[in-house]
Amino acid sequence: MNWWSANRLRLIQNNLREIDAVMNVDLLIQELQSFQANVLMMNVGGIFAFYPSLLQHQYVTPYLKKDLVGEVLEKTHEAGLKFIARFDFSKAHESLFASHPDWFYRDREGREVNYSGIVHTCLNGEYQQEKSLESIAEVLERYEVDGIFFNMFGYQHWDYSGNYYGPCYCQNCRWRFKELTGEDLSDYSGPGHPLHAAYRTFQEQTSRMMLEKIHAFVKSKRPDVAISTYHSHQVDIVRKESNTSLTRRGPLWLYSASENVATIENSWEGKLISNCSINAVDLTYRFTGVSEEETAIRLYQNIANGSGLDFCIIGAFDGYPDQANLPVVKELFHFHARNEDIFGNLHSMAEVVLVKPLDSGAGEEYFGLFKMLKESHIVFDVVMEEQLATMVGKLKLARAVLLPGLQSPGADAVRALRAAQQAGAVLFATGIALERDADLLSEWFGATSGQLRLNEPAAYLDVTDARHFPSMKGRGWIISGDFARFTFHPQVECRITYIESSNFGPPERAYGHRVSPHPALGIFRREGRASAAYFPWSPGALYYRHGFEDHKRVVMDTLLELMGRRKLTTNAPASTEIFLHQMKDGNCLLQLLNLSGFNGTTYMKPVPLNDIQIELEIARPFMKARSLRTRENLHLDLCGDVVRISLPRLDRYEALVLEVPKTSQQRRKEGLPNEARNDLAQVEDDV
Length: 687
Fold this sequence. Notes:
Blueprint: E1 10-15, H1 25-35, E2 39-46, H2 68-78, E3 82-88, E4 91-93, H3 94-99, E5 114-115, E6 118-120, H4 126-142, E7 147-150, H5 171-181, H6 196-221, E8 226-229, E9 237-242, H7 256-265, E10 272-278, E11 280-282, E12 285-289, H8 292-304, E13 309-314, H9 326-338, H10 340-343, E14 346-348, E15 352-356, H11 363-375, E16 380-384, H12 392-397, E17 400-404, H13 411-422, E18 426-430, H14 438-445, E19 447-454, E20 460-462, E21 477-479, E22 483-488, E23 492-499, E24 515-526, E25 529-534, H15 539-546, H16 549-563, E26 568-570, E27 576-583, E28 588-594, E29 609-617, E30 624-627, E31 633-634, E32 636-639, E33 642-650, E34 653-659, H17 664-670, H18 674-686
Helix pairs in contact: 4-6, 7-8, 8-9, 11-15, 15-16
């Protein structure tokens, strides 16, 4: 087993400035130990080397007076910590550009990007293709590092100030683009151009090829070294970030860490996810941290979804001007250290699968459905579209599979979704999914696209049918947003009437709406049961942008009707994020995170919630519920196959271990001496 396989990372990243080359390493180790961190990530090479490199292409920071990497590595290992070496080959010192201009990015006019003396390199140039491996080799041969991480891997089209420069048109990119696509890169001008799909494929293909080269090179030298970057291909630890930006378009995304972790944790077997909580409010303000409450939410969402902990600041802790978040970070790191056996071994109990589509245009639809499911306390997994074929077992266990804006799934993904539907899962499509795939629309949803999209002001959807939309009582028409004219087969039950646009002003002329013959929801039934639901409009995107509960209620009323009985119900408000997992020992872990302090723009202290009741549909009765925080037992009521749990108060977070009766084999195993117990465990694993 590799050192990272246990999934117990408590990682601190000190993102060093070149002036930190003289840092007090003993003080750093003391600080890491005060967090109970077990992994340190720190700059080693790339833009600047923090060790005395002998390579001509590796620029050493002039502030280096000692072998900082060597000292840090020795002392982290002495303290029982792992060390991940951080590289950044996306840029290099301007002195290298003067001697090797062919290694660097060029815009359409042939200009480089020089930002404060640091120049953008190109993935297809010799610096990244060959020299980066020489830098890695020097570090691996010199130092017993435990992992390597690559920052800003791939293609960089922006600088740190957010200025956009577009694709790289260097000679290396032109050659490779021609070789891989047969097209002339100089014809491509960016998003919207006919070659955009080919360029995106080119980016992905060449990035994967480089990752394969790095993987083969590193593992041939040191198979025990973990490889990590923000891409999932040929890496051991996928890194993601929960971060903020002062220029990012809203709304603020409350579920950043949950979504980041779930996309990897639910889509791959055996691949680790480490989601970094970036303390800085923005790249331009690296020395001001986000609020304590936002930091706590990110870190709790990390562990609640099955990841470890990951926290980053600029520079060293000594002299870092914003210390406000450090106490809550330490609190969570200590909590994880006490319970690391539990958090590293969580298994899905999801009843719904939400597919994350490859098409970036479907992002808002996906995020809106994610938010709806969270607020409705439906236990769900996220599976990335490209991983559907490997997650067939998970799909076949789901009661529903949600397809927000899915457009052109590959043959393997189609087979996986077809298997899920045949196993009993309801396919639930929103965001005008598959509108150009006539065969799948007909097979799965009994639908035919009219090839016409409408997005008119003053158009509505009629949801007055209380039988199907019980939560919409008293609500007649709701906003429609974009709408596509579809027709449905005779066996499809059509719901929701589209009300066509009419005058909305002046008020004296606000009338004249007409009922459209095209429905806004089709329920496809086979052999007496619903097998699919199709929404030819985008309720998820509307909810993500505007937050009208109308759209959530229509979607959730339909989903819950088609799912039947649900695994978890509660009186907790929508601002409570709930997680349910099975633990390695067969018990269950129920976690609740109080998000009531978030008002849409500000993260404040959550309002305490009292007398929360949770009902769980279970196969085996629970004996007791025990709080991981307080170690106290909670009251349980058992009624048939439903258990009721009473939580007197929820402040910020609670984790409850729900213990099931032990089997005779488990009781026998606990009575054995350690050696015999291990032998029995090995037999069970082999079986």
